[in-house]
Amino acid sequence: MVEKYKKKGETWPDKSKKWNPTYVAMIEVMDNSVGVLRAKLKELNLDENTVFMVVSDNGNVGNVTTNSPLRGAKGAMYEGGIRTFGTAVWPGKIAAGSTTDYPITGVDLLPTFAEIAGAELPKDQTFDGQSFVELLKTGKNIKERAIFWHYLMYLKGGRSNKGWEGDNVLPIYRTDRMYWRAAPSSTIMQGDWKLIYFYEYEKYELYNVATDISEEHDLSKSIPEISKKLYDKLMTWVKETEADAPTKVNPDFVKKLHSLLYETFMIKVSIHNEMTMWISHK
Predict the structure, then answer these.
(1) Residues 6 or more apart from 76 whose CB is under 8 A from it?
(2) Element (H, E) at 52
(3) From which residue to which does the signal peptide run (predicted)?
(4) Which residues contact 253 (CB under 8 A, 6 or more apart)?
(5) Contact 180, 261 (CB under 8 A)
(6) Distance (Å, rounded) from C-alpha 158 to C-alpha 37?
C-alpha cells in the first residue's frame, strides 16, 4: 500500500509540502477496514440492530495536512488539535445526512452506549460524561455543560518538509511554536467560549469558537469578566479532580534556549531538560 503511493508521489507537483505516502496509505487502510466491518455486519444480519460509530481522538498531523481553517494540530489545545470528526449509523434512529456542531468528547461514549444497550451504570461511581442518545435521535443539543482538557506535557513537534526533524522547520500550523506543539495547559469550553490556561506563561487565552473558529482573536483582555469566570471554573475542576498541576519552576531551565526554540530554529531533544520550564506536579 505504501509503495503504491510512493509511485504515485513521483508525479506530485510539490513533494516538499504535502507528500507522505505512509500517511495516505494509513487513511486508505482505515477506510477499507470500515467497509469490511460494515459488510460483515450486513452478512451476519446485524447491520439493522447495530450502532456503528467512527471517531478520532485528536486533530490532524501538522506536517501532513494544513488543518485550515483551524489553528494548531495534533497535540495542541487549539481547535486543530481537539476538534475532530465523528460519524454514526443507527438504522431507524439517526436521520440520514443529518449533522450537528454540538461538541461531545470521549467520556460521553460510555453513558451513551449504556443507554443504548439498556444497561445501568454503577451507582457508586462518578462518570464525567453524559449520554448523547437524544442528540443522535433528534439532532437537538443536550444540556449545556463545560468540557475540560488537561494536558501537562511538552510535546515535541516542529513541522518540517522532512518529517518531524530536518531542514526548513516551520511553525506548528497557525501558531508561533517552533518546537513544542503543546506545553502544560488546562482548557475549558462552555457554549461558544473556550479558555486555555498555559502554566508556563501563567496566563490564559479566550476565544469565541463560534465566530472565530481559527482562534485568531484572543479576547481575554477585552472581555475579562468571561475570562475570569471560566478560569475560576477551570481551576476549581482541576482541584476537585485532584489533577496533577505544575507547582515550581525547573531549576535547570535556560531561558535563552527556550527563546531560541520559539524564535529561530529547532534544537535536538538532547537538551530537553534545559528547555522545559515546569517539572514538578501536585
Answers:
(1) 59, 82, 172, 175, 181, 182
(2) strand 52-55
(3) none
(4) 274, 275, 276, 277
(5) yes
(6) 36
**pLDDT (0 to 100) of residue 6:** 81
Q: What are phi and psi of 247, to 5 degrees?
A: -125, -25
Task: Tell me if 184 sits within 8 A of 152, measured CB to CB.
Answer: yes
pLDDT of 106 reads: 92
Ranges of the chain whose pLDDT falls below 70:
13-19, 62-63, 156-181, 249-282
CA distance 85 to 103: 10
- Cα–Cα distance for residue pair 147/104, rounded to 1 Å: 8
Whether domain 51-275 has CATH 3.40.50.300: the reply is no
The rounded percent of the chain whose pLDDT value lies above 90 is: 50
Contact assessment for residue 106 and residue 114, using Cβ atoms and an 8 Å cutoff = no
What pLDDT was estimated at residue 50? 95
90 touches 138 (CB < 8 A): no
